[in-house]
Amino acid sequence: MPLYRFSCGSCGASFDALAGYGADARGCTCGARAVRVPTFEAGFVVAGKSIPPDTASAQYEEHRELRRAGWNGDRALELIRKNVSEDKEGRKSLNVKAMNEA
């Protein structure tokens, strides 16, 4: 079960609690209902390595800025395909300088 952040509108308390995916409210210690707050502060585990929350947030912001600038997977693949060259022995190389200028 995932850990979510909840915030109470009555007493102003904020706390983390385990809840199901569809849980949008939880009981607070004051007796009122606390609502689930969207957050991007969760850490991630990739291939056995933990990525701290601040790094995950920074990566999220970088990806967001790239999307705003018009970058997506299709555009990146198109640039890679245009800038790959093959020599006589069949070895492929990527012209990174040309990609950065695009």
Helix content estimate: 25-40%
Q: Kindly, what is the distance between the CA atoms of the first and last residues, rounded to a whole number of angstroms? A: 44 Å
Q: Which structural class is indicated by helix and strand composition? A: alpha+beta
Strand composition percent: 25-35%
The radius of gyration over CA amounts to: 22 Å
- Summarize model confidence as the mean pLDDT: 79
Helix-strand sequence:
EEEEEEHHEEH
Domains (count) = 3
Number of helical elements = 3
Sequence stretches where pLDDT stays below 50 over 5 or more residues: none
Q: Tell me about the biggest sheet?
A: 4 strands, antiparallel
Q: Would you count the extended β strands for me?
A: 8
Cα shape: rod-shaped
Q: Strands of the largest sheet, in order across it?
A: 2-1-4-3
Give a verbal description of the structure:
By secondary structure, the protein is of the alpha+beta class. It contains three helices and eight strands. It has helices spanning 53-68, 73-82, 96-101; strands spanning 3-8, 14-18, 25-27, 33-37, 44-46, 49-51, 84-86, 92-94.
